[in-house]
Amino acid sequence: MNTIKKITIYTLVSLVILFTIIGILGVWEIINMEDILIKILKSLFIIFISALVIVVIFSIINRTDRPS
Questions:
Q1: Cβ atoms 22, 39 nearer than 8 A
Q2: What is the pLDDT of residues 14-33, one digit of tens each?
Q3: Per residue of the chain (68 residues), what is the pLDDT tens digit?
Q4: DSSP string covering 27-52, please?
Q5: Which residues are CB-contacts of 63 (< 8 A; sequence separation ≥ 6)?
Q6: CA neighbor of 51 nearest in space, from 13, 6, 8, 18
Q7: By C-alpha distance, which of 20, 12, 55 is closest to 36?
Q8: Closest Cα to residue 26, out of 41, 11, 12?
Q9: How far apart are CA 32 and CA 40, in angstroms?
Q10: Whole-angstrom distance, CA of residue 22 vs CA of residue 36
Q11: Orientation of helix 2-27 relative to helix 33-61, angle to 10°
Q12: What is the C-alpha separation between 9 and 38, in angstroms, rounded?
């Protein structure tokens, strides 16, 4: 379970760093930002929804049955 968490954390951090670099290149007008900004926001939304689904799945798997 720890390896999955580490892989997820490193993947999300890498994506944030990548999107930050793309954003900085857009600010300095090295790349065109109109299309890229929309794609970045859509990608971040998809990543957020995926992470939410993963958290829900792990919370269901790790849930302990409590007596009533």
A1: no
A2: 888 888 888 788 788 888 77
A3: 688 888 888 888 888 888 888 878 878 888 877 777 788 788 888 888 888 888 888 888 887 766 65
A4: HTTSS-HHHHHHHHHHHHHHHHHHHH
A5: none
A6: 8
A7: 20
A8: 41
A9: 13
A10: 8
A11: 170
A12: 24
Q: Which two tokens stand for residue 47?
A: 């990543």
pTM over 0.70: no
Write out the two tokens for 50: 């995926």
Token pair recorded at residue 17: 């760093």
Nearest in space to 4 (alpha carbons), one of 64, 63, 57? 57
